[in-house]
UniProtKB/TrEMBL annotation:
Residues 27-141 form the Cadherin domain. The chain crosses the membrane at residues 397-418. GO terms for biological process: cell migration; homophilic cell adhesion via plasma membrane adhesion molecules. This is CDH23. It is found in: Membrane. Residues 430-452 are annotated as: Disordered. Keywords: Calcium, Membrane, Repeat, Transmembrane, Transmembrane helix. SMART domains: CA. One of its GO terms (cellular component) is catenin complex.
Length: 549
């Protein structure tokens, strides 16, 4: 039986179909771009994501953006469709969240294995767009009218003096304590620093108050060539305004000058300009008032603008601060705010007394204000000066009294010192005598070192001791005794003891002369040329020192 086997070989071709199993990816998690402000219809940048799947179709969407400002096309192009304002954008930066989505749809593989390949098919990136600044904000004066006051004393002995800075928010008190302090005259420029450089300039002719003849006085100075041209300009004016906003006087303000000067001003940069009128009042002492405030200079400077504005609104008169100065007192820290008041209708300056009367007139309305700003008193400037002078006189008197007291104390010390020295000299005289026994007028024997003997004989001349001059006559010794009481009578037993001491001294003195080398005893009582001996005899302590003269 024959069995047959059949075998057939056939090649089967298997096609591997791409499955959409990868999400699109961006090359960077964040991307940066920049664009100038104030432009539109400009492409900022283009984003592009990659998908390794063969049939993937990527589309782009903005998940977070500024509405109606930017446009993102389906192919990833970011375009400005409406101008961006750097000054109104936080940190001058726009951040966009861009999403890339694979929109290729499903395929056969997805139908069979949709549970396996149901992965996320999108990804995101962040695009940061920096808005570049342009000079698009012109400088703007805060007010169409600026009023300041200047004291004549700032130009004493000179023609040019600093008044104030139009750009500065505060003025340097160290330069001029009496200058007017105002808030910043120009609004802050929102542009960057490179586009915030402003140029100030006088924008016309200066005018003067009519009723004060100030115009006539200025014209006389011009006619006599006493007014020089301002720096950087050919204009000869009594007030100079520099390009950086510094205002200086150009004449020496005289005692008979009063009134005000009107200066038209313009400030500009590449973005535009703004104008105002600067009125400078020439203030005298009798036109200056002073408000005493409980606080230091820093506190007063922080409230002065608000205080002047409130007083102006309340009274209908223009209050303007002229300076800050400390009040000399040791009880509490306080400061004077000097000011002047101008009539808004006529432009004339009120006297200081009239300005102070406004506080009395509106005292009921000012009650809360006085408490809020710690106002202690309102006075004329001359009153405060007199008070300061009085305080200075009082201080002088106090200093004189202190010096006199110290002098009296020194005199007392000197008196007691001299008294003690005199008493010491009397004791020294009483203890200084000859080494031999003598008699007093009554024939009674006296001994060296006793007060009885000291009263009957004259002491040595002090010059003999200081100058070490030789003493004529018998050999004399200096004796010092502590007798406890200057008036104590010497007893007979003491005389015998003293004789013993003198006898012992003669023996020891003779022995000491036999030796050429100075000797000292172990107890310290004997020296080569000096003799010291002490003993206790019935409660009487005797100490004897002798020195050969």
């Amino acid at each position: 039986m024959v069995s047959l086997s059949y075998q057939s070989i056939k090649d089967i071709e298997i096609m591997i179909v791409d499955v959409n199993d990868h999400s699109p990816t961006f090359p960077h998690t964040t991307e940066n771009a920049s664009v100038p402000e104030n432009i539109q219809n400009v492409i900022v940048t283009t984003v592009k994501a990659e998908d390794i799947d063969k049939d993937s179709i990527i589309e782009y969407k903005i998940k977070k953006m500024i509405a109606n400002r930017l446009q993102l096309t389906l192919i990833g192009t970011i375009k400005i469709i409406k101008e961006l304002d750097r000054e109104n954008t936080t940190n001058a930066m726009v951040s966009l969240v861009i999403e890339a989505v694979d929109t290729s749809g499903t395929n056969a593989s997805d139908q069979c294995y949709d549970s396996i390949f149901s992965q996320n098919n999108s990804t995101t990136t962040i695009v940061n767009i920096k808005i570049l600044d342009q000079n698009d904000n012109p400088p703007i004066f805060k007010s169409s009218y600026i009023s300041i006051g200047v004291r004549r004393t700032i130009t004493t002995g000179k023609t040019e003096a600093f008044i104030f800075d139009l750009k500065a928010s505060t003025f340097d008190l160290k330069r001029h304590m009496i200058l007017h302090l105002v808030p910043e005259s120009v609004e802050p420029d929102p542009d960057s620093d490179q586009y915030s450089v402003h140029q100030f300039k006088v924008n016309g002719k200066l005018t003067y108050s009519i009723d004060t003849l100030l115009d006539q006085k200025i014209q006389e100075l011009l006619n006599t060539n006493k007014i020089k041209a301002c720096t950087g300009s050919n204009e000869k004016t009594p007030i100079c305004v520099t390009g950086n906003g510094t205002v200086n006087t150009n004449i020496q303000l005289e005692e008979n000058m009063k009134g005000y000067i009107n200066i038209p001003l313009i400030v500009k940069d590449a973005a535009g300009n703004s104008t105002t009128e600067l009125r400078i009042y020439i203030i005298s002492d009798y036109q200056t008032g002073s408000i005493l405030i409980n606080g230091n200079k820093e506190y007063v400077q922080s409230i002065k603008a608000d205080l002047m504005r409130i007083l102006t609104q309340l009274t209908g008169q223009n209050f303007t601060a002229d300076g800050i100065r400390p009040f000399n007192t040791g009880t509490f820290q306080s400061t004077y705010l000097d000011f002047h008041v101008a009539d808004p209708k006529t432009g004339t300056i009120l006297s200081a007394k009239a300005a102070i009367q406004l506080f009395d007139k509106y005292s009921s309305q000012l009650g809360v204000i006085l408490k809020q700003y710690s106002i202690l008193a309102a006075k004329t400037y001359t009153e405060t000066q007199a008070q300061d002078d009085e305080g200075g006189i009082k201080t002088t008197y106090i200093m004189i009294a202190v010096i006199a007291l110290l002098g009296a104390t020194n005199l007392l010390i000197g008196f007691f010192f001299c008294s003690s020295a005199s008493r010491y000299q009397r004791k020294l005289k009483a203890a200084t005598t000859k080494s031999t026994v003598d008699q007093d007028k009554g024939g009674t024997e006296t001994h060296p070192g006793t007060n009885v003997y000291a009263r009957n004989v004259a002491s040595f001349d002090s010059n003999q001791f200081t100058k070490k001059e030789p003493i004529r006559g018998d050999e004399e010794k200096g004796a010092t005794m502590d007798m406890y009481d200057d008036e104590r009578d010497v007893q007979q037993g003491d005389n015998e003891s003293l004789a013993m001491v003198l006898e012992q001294y003669k023996k020891e003195k003779a022995a000491s002369r036999e030796s050429l080398v100075p000797r000292e005893m172990h107890n310290g009582h004997l020296h080569s040329d000096d003799f010291t001996h002490s003993f206790d005899n019935g409660g009487l302590e005797l100490s004897l020192e002798t020195t050969e003269v």
